Input
Amino acid sequence: MKIILNQDVIHLGEEGDVVEVKDGYARNYLLPTGAAVIYSKANAALFKSRAAAIEQRKAEKRAASASIKEKLDNVVLTITVPAGESGKLFGSVTSQMVQAELQKLGFEIERKKIEVATHAIKMTGTYSVVIHLYENDMSHVKLIVQSEAERILAEKKAAEEKAAAEAAAKAEAEAAAAEAAAQAEEAPAAEETAAEDAPAASDAE
Output
């Protein structure tokens, strides 16, 4: 069936595109949801009259996509899942789990745009998740899959590093304070010595 897309449909096309799809896909999903209309001369003319507005929306989507991609490329997600001692997962990492983690960071990404290779994620470790944005833009988000034991170990290590950093900062501050106090004590003594030497210098003249 020949249709005109009324909105962007991932893996199919963008608003205003004329595409051929299977009749069942059109009748059961695209047409009832308003994602598309049947191609006709009248509908084609209607979309032609809206061409300028459609292009404006596309430009805005491209700009937004580029901005989100730049931010997503620097994101590191960490998901904790049940796993055995060997690191083999008991369950699987789903796009819904990734979507939830992204939402925590302020990214509102449709689940259907998140591509998680669940067949490849069978062990704890570091992986890459593909986020489909606008047109051909996509972001590769770093995903760390860890077990509960690994999470506890990572939190313990982070706490130890934080404590060590705080102790080092405190020691440095105390050393600086001690040095400042020592200099403050030396200053009056130096002034007193200078005062004692001054009359002697006058007598000599």
User: Anything to note?
Assistant: The beta strands are 2-5, 18-20, 36-38, 76-80, 114-115, 125-132, 138-146. The radius of gyration is 33 Å. The helical segments are 23-30, 41-49, 51-72, 95-104, 148-204. The chain has a mean pLDDT of 85.
